[in-house]
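Researcher: Here's a chain I'd like modeled. Treat it as a single chain, no partners, no ligands.
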Amino acid sequence: MCKFQQKMDWDNFRIFLEVARARQLLAVARKLGINHATVARRLSRLEKDLHAKLVDRKTSGCELTPAGERLLEITERIETAALQAQSTVGNADLALSGTVRIGAPDGFGSYFLAPRLARLKRLHPALTIQLVPVPLNFSLPKREVDIAITLQLPSEGRLVARKLTDYSLGFYASRDYLDQAPPLETVEDLKNHTLITYVPDLLYSPALDYSEVVKGIDTYRLECASVIGQFEAIAAGSGVGILHDFMMPRHPGLVRVLPTIAFTRAYWLVCHADIHDLRRVREVEAFIVQEVQAARSMFVLAR
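Model: Modeled as a single isolated chain. Structure tokens:
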């Protein structure tokens, strides 16, 4: 007579998937609302069921073994199939319920997208929308966000990407600051001003490096790690800095200076291939694209 093995608990695969992505048992426990010991116990149970060591647990975090890497690929395919079943067979997406998490640079996320998300919520009230800032660490391949707005076209992973728009930037200062500051007509004049800029060693993308323009010019500096901090410092009259042109229509107190100097960068809209066909994801992507296209004249100003 054949003996059947005890049925494996598929929730343990979900625990493993979360551990593989977070690489921290405590982080998984917090996310799932269970205690640390339960996460460790269920992970051990899965390893026992599969007769394989899946994770090396170290003081610095968890690292997947070769067997764990293979299981990660399998469990992600299972997760994708479950999402697709929920969307198509179960009709769970018909009312656009569930959650879509968007990762975006703080300039685009806070000053362009966030004020427009109320319109999306009115269209789909049962949909939960999460907007998280870059450079908050997240991974599309690990499904930590559903949609990402990036400054560069990603080169790795099973991703679907499209160019969202070019955008322009320039030097700005407040009217009050300019009324009291020395003349500012050329780049060399910046040596008499406070330059408000990024913290160099915290730049998370080469696209944020504008240092070539002021190379060799010794200026006073106020360095802020986020564009929101830079904007608030410039608006308060602390100095001169480089800001996105699309932020300016709502802030008439800021003045474009050094008008012959401009920067052009691009935003990309990126999604993991496995969830790109989920209706709630497609609808949010379409909304973002539509809003950007409607405001295209804001993103690249004519000089």
